[in-house]
């Protein structure tokens, strides 16, 4: 049977002459202590001397301060109620230390203020990075950094501070023009100005904070043992702004043809950007990360087959797709072939990470955009434009376009599991789009 006792010990005397007061928990032959916020002087203690066997003497302190006694006896009563009303027979699964920690947490009102939300969030993102989900971690860290900016740069924010009111004030902060201070790779502070976020930006940032908060609840709350350290949930009252449907980033047939027709570009990086854009478009809008990570086995017998990086860990089919490499794009496979034979393309030897590759391509697309009169051109236009031309110009069904884009229809997810994939459907979709655009063969200009 677990028992409790208020304790003050002579050997714990502090330099200021005060003694800490604790509550002893005795369970399964072990005794552990729960610290309290109280400290007492000798005037608040009854001192007794006990004679032990062998002539030894032991000093025993008993608390006599009635206020502190009443406070701690009420606390012990709360422990007794937890023991009888919540734990019951499940108490047998606890060690003495676990039991003491449980009582200390559950008897305290509200959530556990000792949980550092920022420290947990950064640790959570480190785990994601280690698991190969660096991009996911990055999308969570940026909003977390903005939260610390809102809290005047504090790197320690208790989980109890994440309230409905804080979230509303944080949203207002995000919508305003902000000045950011960050350390660069040389340890110097760089100051940048950021405009206020749109509804879409606020939606993404607040969704990231909710993901991190939910992860913290999963980490610290054990519902099976009724061990709940984070009791409040600010997102119950705070509703995240709904993002408006993004503007479709679609090019006309003439604009696509203009990109293919480019022969003279001002710098090698612009040539790289143009070529990568064409690669993506001719491969049904394949994302840059998939081009960068494609190993040598992905290009075999005239087909480009790969597992989509973004969703392969969330799908039973590993988001696998196979696309025929048509003559229009074959020269680019040869042009950027990895000489080591390790990868399909040599992008990973040109750039240390996918992020650097993405930055280089986007910088090069600025020149492509200027040359073709397409403001704001990014690689996402390749994917959106491919799908739009397939549907609106070639009358390809939405289901076939979804297959070519390597999407999964959640409503038909179970049915899809019974059907063997026919990649010729993807090939026909790609061929129809290329025929509609009437693309010339890409040039052989040297890459960056």
- The percent of residues in helical segments reads 40-55%
Give the overall shape, derived from the CA principal axes.
Answer: elongated
Radius of gyration: 32 Å
Structural class: alpha+beta
CATH names the topology of the largest domain as hpI Integrase, Chain A
Q: What is the total number of structural domains?
A: 3
Description:
- By secondary structure, this protein is of the alpha+beta class.
- It has three domains: 3-107, no CATH class; 117-236, no CATH class; 253-437, hpI Integrase, Chain A.
- Helix content is 44%, strand content 14%.
- It has 16 helices and ten strands.
- The strands form four sheets. It has a three-stranded antiparallel beta sheet.
- The longest helix has 22 residues, at 66-87.
Describe this protein with a few key phrases.
single chain, 448 residues, alpha+beta, hpI Integrase, Chain A, 3 domains, three-stranded antiparallel sheet, 16 helices, 14% strand, elongated, disordered C terminus
Architecture blueprint of SSEs:
Layout: E1 3-7, E2 19-27, E3 30-40, E4 45-51, E5 57-63, H1 66-87, H2 96-107, H3 117-130, H4 134-150, H5 164-174, E6 178-183, E7 189-194, H6 199-220, H7 253-261, H8 268-282, H9 288-293, E8 299-300, E9 303-307, E10 320-324, H10 330-335, H11 347-350, H12 354-372, H13 380-393, H14 398-404, H15 413-416, H16 424-437
Antiparallel strand pairs: 1-2, 2-3, 4-5, 6-7, 8-9, 9-10
Helix pairs in contact: 1-2, 3-4, 3-6, 4-6, 8-12, 8-13, 13-16, 14-16
